[in-house]
Amino acid sequence: MNQVTKSSSDKTGIRPTEVDFDLSNSLAFRMVKLVNVLTREFQREFEADLDLGLPEWRVIAALHRKPGLAAADIARLTGQNPMIISRAVKRLLSMGRIERRAMRGDGRRFQLFLTAAGAEVFKHISPLAIRWEKALVDEMLPQDIISISNLIDGAIERFDS
What we know:
With 161 residues, the chain is mostly helical. 60% of the residues lie in helices and 12% in strands. Helix 3 (54-65) packs across helix 6 (116-137).
């Protein structure tokens, strides 16, 4: 375990020192690892059958919820790197799962929409996504889910500028 120092601003009284940073004990890296583990297993269940990666799934899920977004909007919404979203959009366009339309007043930007094929992909994967979300929270108490959700939302608000 890494060395710690006391801090009056920390509710636990414990903060890692700069000198002894330990990746395996870093909260941020453990959160990233959790997301990576969950998404890796989730993706395995649909990747081969649907020829679809996680970035493409995120684009489809975003467009299902908010049709007409631009790629940059999807990148902001999902917190993904814009280049990753751009590649996913290009792939989905070539597969006929989404379509793009020029935005009125700005012919350089495009709105994206699911096609019937994209809507079918969403219909196929969304129950799986719900099942994975349920598996994540099944062992948690309702108040813990609310607390974790509030902490995550607060961190996103603080760091996503």
